[in-house]
Amino acid sequence: MHSLTGDEARDDSASGTLLARGGTGEQISGGGVRVWTDRVADPFYVDLDQLFTINAAVAKGTAVDSAKWDPKQAKNSFANTTVQAIVVEVSHEHPILRPGAQVGVWCSTKLATDAGGWRQINRAGHPMMWPIFWPTDTDFSNPANDRHPSEDLEGAGKYLADQVSAVVAAQGNVADPQGYGWTVARRLFPDVLHYEVGTPATFGFAGINGRTLADFVPEVMFSLVLGRATPGALGPSTNERLRTSTFPHVVKPKPTARPHRCPASDTATCLMPARSSVDVARRGEQLLDPVRV
Q1: pLDDT band at 264 (very low <50, low <70, confident <90, very high)
Q2: Cβ atoms within 10 A of the Cβ of 293, count?
Q3: What span, in angstroms and rounded, lies between the C-alpha atoms of 204 and 218?
Q4: Whole-number Å distance between alpha carbons of 275 and 78
Q5: Buried b (16+ CB within 10 A) or exposed e, 59-87
Q6: How confident is the model at residue 261 (pLDDT cuts 50, 70, 90)?
Q7: What digits encode the pLDDT tens for the residues 51-95?
Q8: Strand partners of residue 35
Q9: CB within 8 A of 86, min separation 6: which ones?
Q10: Distance (Å, rounded) from C-alpha 286 to C-alpha 283?
Q11: Are 105 and 90 a contacting pair, CB within 8 Å?
Q12: Nearest CA-CA partner of 276 in 109, 142, 160
């Protein structure tokens, strides 16, 4: 693991300062940072059947068809699946990431090119952005994949605002649909997850300040986008056995667990929730992205 600051953090060719080196399944540490990576039981939870009904409403600008999802039959579609996790824990003694510091977390995946250098192919900030707003982006061709967060509002602000305003207008639960659409767009863009170091992390209705593994983030995002309370019928107890209070805060999978896969027809909608799992926990500062860091 390397640390890059200042101009180096913006330079894909920079190597930074080596903090620690190790292998899969091994805890390594250095420079006030602890790192671990391995396959884990997927702690993300959502009922994809509920997501599909919201996808349809947002895509078509219609009211959500509540008859197509029964909360009494809610299930965790990610149960008994696995993902690759990279867990990074930063000590509160860190000279920069100390209590009181404001952190903006976003992650990107970049591939080496034949000509040298790197090409960004996707990224994550707030959870659930792709499954809600770009569910058909199966080939990662949407410009949002390679954009920098600073370009989000100009590049996709109107698109997001129009989608939100159409669905809330169809439902009739917001007096000014267009104004609400832009309020949501400005809340989610730039697509960066903010956190104040040393404070309780939460992604909830009282506010967004990082995120914990227990937070039911789909319910929060659904409610924000639809402009009304949208219960998901799941909760922190759904994945309680898949998180721990000690580093690395995730658990190894059971032998019967399977790598996360989706039906071919639902690939984009199904995969994207995990792609957006950037989590901030209070013990040290844990940044976890099961798929893409």
Answers
A1: very low
A2: 18
A3: 10
A4: 13
A5: eeeeebeeeebeeeebebbbeebbbbbbb
A6: low
A7: 999 999 999 999 999 999 999 999 999 999 999 999 999 999 999
A8: 28, 88
A9: 35, 36, 37, 288, 289, 293
A10: 7
A11: no
A12: 109
